Amino acid sequence: MDGDNLLERLANLSPAKRGLLERRVKEDATAAREAIAIPPRPKSESAPLSFAQQRLWFINQLEPESSAYNEAAAIRLEGTPNVDALKNALNAIVDRHEVLRTTFSAADGSGPVQLIGKSRPVDLPIVDFSGYPEPERMAQVQGAIAQLRECNFDLGKDLMLRAALLRLDFNRHVLVIITHHIASDGWSNGIFWRELATLYEAFSLEKPNPLPELPIQYADYAVWQRQWLQGEVLEKQLSYWKAQLQDLSILELPTDRPPPPVQTYRGARQSLLLPRALSDHLKALSSQQGVTLFMTLLAALQTLLHRYTGQDDIVVGSPIAGRNRLETEGLIGFFVNTLVFRTDLSGNPTFRELLHRVKEEALHAYEHQDLPFERLVEALNPDRDRGRTPLFQVMFAVQNVPRRALEMPGLVAAPIEIESLTAKFDLFAAFVERDQQQTMRIEYNTDLFDDATIRRMTVHFQTLLESVVANLHERISELPMLTEAEKHQLLVEWNDTEKEYPKDRCIHELFEEQVKRTPEAVAVVFEGQELSYRDLNAKANRLAHHLRRRGVGPETLVAICMERSTEMIVGLLGILKAGGAYVPLDPQYPKERLAFMLRDTQAPVLLTQQRLMEELLEDRRSKPVLSPSAALRIDSAEGIEDGDFRFSILNPRIQVVCLDAEWEVIAAESEDNPISGATANNLVYVIYTSGSTGTPKGVVVPHRGITRLLFGIDYAQFGANQTFLHLAPTAFDASTFEIWGPLLDGGTCILYPGKVPTPKELGDLLHEHDVSTLWLTASLFNAVIDTAPKALSRVRQLLIGGEALSVPHVRCALSRLPNTEIINGYGPTESTTFTCCYRIPRELDENVTSIPIGRPIGNTQTFILDASLTPVPIGVTGKLYIGGDGLARGYLNNSELTAEKFVPNPFNDLPGSRLYRSGDLARYLPDGNIEFLGRIDHQVKIRGYRIELGEIECVLSQHPAVRETVVIAREDDPGEKHLVAYVVSNRGSTPLINDLRRFLRQKLPDHMVPSAFVFLDDLPLTPNGKVDRRALPEPDQGRPKLEETYVAPRTPVEEGLAGIWAEVLGLKQVGIHDNFFDLGGHSLKATQVMSRVRATLQVDLPLRTLFEAPTVAGLAIRITRGQTEKANPNEIASLLAELERMSDEEAESQLADESPPGNGASKHDRSL
């Protein structure tokens, strides 16, 4: 029926007809309620568990020693209590509510049941604290309450209620009640205290129990719930929640420590009283918007979580009373249900828009509140993670039911706040209203969060609420969350890095000044050759004059393709002295890549060595097409095939200078310092890094970037007493530090003669030259520490970078290298080598899981921002932006990418001030150091090289046999990253891995060629159609299919287990390596399996064993160990010795024989 039509027809009814209609509707509703009223069950001692009880029982089976679900409540009693009346009142409550004298068992293996016990007295011990000094008494009481709560309940035999009376003095006491959540909830507490007050009053006056008989008991509700919640009722509820909660994402909260493998429940609580005015404004706002206060606060919490995580899909749980039937309102029991509120915060809505999204979600959730959370979890069957609660990690509640005063004759009773020491969730945010004022309470898991983190979070929440009240129409990304003091700390205090340095000088000018100070000092050493500062300067001057004759000057790009040598250093310095900028080309790069760089730079001069000429500049027919004096044009790289490298003698002209072959000509030039004409703003080099489009990009760096790197800093020591090793490829920007660090301050630069050394080779060279300062990639550092840590024993400054550091390797280095200062250096090429540095302390905290990248070096700024360029709080993940004098100009010949990556600095009013969008994720630690958290995109660092995975994918997809491909970096062993390519081949043509590697090596450097290839039929996709990178298998496992791994049982124990699994799971066949949960097992079925194991195999193993060993083979080993531990140790030792002497053939023969020969074997068989 049309809604508008119905309203019109109702409006046309006469008052009498309308009254009759209302009565009929009311009668129908009453009849409907009576039709589904909860009837008392047939009287028996047992009943099934409710769905909620079943989950807690299961958790108790996993962690029987846990007290996480023990609930404590207490009241202060002023006056002299009648202890006998209190005891009688407690006993009457236990008599009245069966659930408090119920125990739980699964003895017959068919699933747990609740057993209703007979009445038994409740103990009420009195503990006297009156002997403690007055200021200490309440602290002692809190400690006693904590101890009482920590005592776990045995669900198989204990009463579900305990009590104690704590005496402060003769007329002041605290009554403490401990219940297990399986028998009680928050609503039940109110019932308990009201009934206790009523009964205490009656029994104090020696009157009978005044409470009426309860219509039903909790077990009646449990029976009814299971009968009612099935068929159409269940399907309606389930279909909504399945649709609402499909493809849930885990909330990645910014924790201080990674979650433990098993949830610990260790917790604490912090509270913050909101100003009365703020509480009033929030209520008024809710009223104006037609929403409840709960909805407003929930929307604010989800905004906070969105801002903390950067996620748009925010899921929060919330308790709901679960007592929507009249019979349950007066029952003590576990009725509370959990609703899941999932809100889409995408599109950066205004808070008002978000608030109405939340309202719609909440109303739909309330309409489907009858489905028990436990039933929902079972239906959705999310991935099991014993370190997290299922479906959500954050709980939220608003507690605004007014407390009733407890009236107990002769006593003044008032509730007391109990310190929280447990946390069932990562976070539980609750708002409690007292006297028209809201108190925000956040309960948190202390294994995840520090107290200071939660203190900041509560302040951020309050600031956010104040922002919402002030501007409801502001977009959620723009709502202020940080205090002014925090913003000043993040933006100003931690970026106060201004230092004096020669910002207006060029690199070659600073070198020339050093030559005047130490002309005879050794500047460069290579394979027995030494160059003094004077000789190096003279050689570089001669080359500079020669290059100037060839047209080199400021902003001229000069390509240099040379092997590491003294000639190379002369070449670099000579280019700068001529006023030009060098473009290092690694001779080991594929010719196609080198061709692109030369074409992209349009460098008029190429500086190289004679021995590289034929290798680099010949075609595949070995016919030279280039001579040292030729002027050449590089053709399009599209014309290069199969390694062919063609040049044509056409314009524009490239002049090739062979430094060794032409040295006699060059040596005739003047050795005086030339006038370069360059300034600190002119280019010093262009270094190419990996590009996501399939082609590398040239990073354009001015002189000031290097002077900022080496002067006015405190991350390392430079000077005449320092010897540096130049180990990195010149085409890698770490070479900037290795070469110019010593040469601009009087040190010595030792050139490593080869490519990457073995740890022993490296150690020999370091010791031979007494190298004091060394830069290593994290990968090489790990290799050295693993195999030859003594190689680094004489290094005084060890800088590591290029990738995240491995904490175990750092710990080992700290212990094996007592005289070495270890520094973690971070910085993209676009920020000239180093942005931040961190001096690693000699003693690392045992809880450290990552090494920070430190703080910005001199004249450098760092900002960790969200998508709206707003600073994120301490501890929260954001995008790392870099500012300061080290920034590159941008990318060569790519103004669009430059504009995308180098953005105006919103925190600096100076004209032209920019920030570099690094693409890295990071967060501030409380001490101001920065923790690196990975890449936003799919760019990674392998062995120090920054690699765009998209470039590899782009090249690999050009192979004719490849239809689709995805490349990822895996870290299967800590600190050991490697590239893995996942390939979907074209129909009918599966390429060989060697073919793919050969194809990639023709186009990419070795460090960009994947170490493993996995062939798939199709790439796994997310529901949004994107590649699901998390679902990509490990390289050695292929596509997991259970039928491919089937192995039949081999032993009687394995046969027994396979039979039990098949029976419980409803399968015909179970292999010994099949995973129980992959076969469809879940928590309830796990209890059935372990119950049958207990009955069939006479081994009592805890439930967690199946989670730890979820295969038949793994569980069989645990069972055999359990059986063995019960047997006579001497007999076991004898049997093991006998078995060890036996061959496999003998063992198989005896196992197959129904009557194994040998009395010893039969005896052992019987004993086991």
Observed structural traits:
six-stranded mixed β-sheet, Chloramphenicol Acetyltransferase, elongated, 1168 residues, alpha+beta, 36% helix, disordered C terminus, 43 strands
Question: What does this 3D model show about the protein?
Answer:
The chain folds into seven domains: 3-35; 46-222, Chloramphenicol Acetyltransferase; 267-402 and 418-481, Chloramphenicol Acetyltransferase; 507-755, ANL, N-terminal domain (Rossmann fold, 3-Layer(aba) Sandwich); 858-935, Roll (Luciferase, domain 3); 939-1039, ANL, C-terminal domain (GMP Synthetase, Chain A, domain 3, 2-Layer Sandwich); 1043-1167, Orthogonal Bundle (Non-ribosomal Peptide Synthetase Peptidyl Carrier Protein, Chain A). Strand 12 and strand 13 form a beta hairpin. Helix content is 36%, strand content 21%.
Please write out the topology.
Elements: H1 3-11, H2 15-35, E1 46-48, H3 51-62, E2 70-78, H4 83-96, E3 102-105, E4 113-116, E5 126-128, H5 134-150, E6 161-169, E7 172-180, H6 186-204, H7 218-228, H8 231-244, E8 267-273, H9 276-289, H10 293-309, E9 313-320, E10 337-344, H11 351-367, H12 373-380, E11 394-399, E12 406-408, E13 411-415, E14 427-434, E15 437-445, H13 451-470, H14 484-491, H15 507-517, E16 522-526, E17 529-532, H16 533-549, E18 557-561, H17 566-577, E19 581-584, H18 591-601, E20 605-608, H19 610-616, E21 631-634, E22 647-648, E23 654-658, H20 663-666, E24 683-689, E25 697-702, H21 703-710, E26 723-726, H22 734-743, E27 748-751, H23 759-769, E28 773-777, H24 778-787, E29 797-801, H25 807-816, E30 821-826, E31 836-839, E32 855-856, E33 860-865, E34 878-884, E35 890-891, H26 895-901, E36 902-904, E37 914-924, E38 930-935, E39 939-942, E40 945-948, H27 949-956, E41 962-973, E42 976-985, H28 993-1001, E43 1012-1015, H29 1052-1065, H30 1083-1097, H31 1104-1108, H32 1112-1126, H33 1129-1141, H34 1144-1152, H35 1159-1167
Parallel strand pairs: 5-6, 11-14, 16-27, 18-19, 18-20, 20-23, 26-27, 28-29, 29-30, 42-43
Antiparallel strand pairs: 1-4, 2-7, 2-13, 3-4, 6-7, 8-15, 9-10, 12-13, 14-15, 16-17, 21-22, 21-23, 24-25, 25-35, 30-31, 31-32, 33-34, 34-37, 36-37, 37-38, 39-40, 41-42
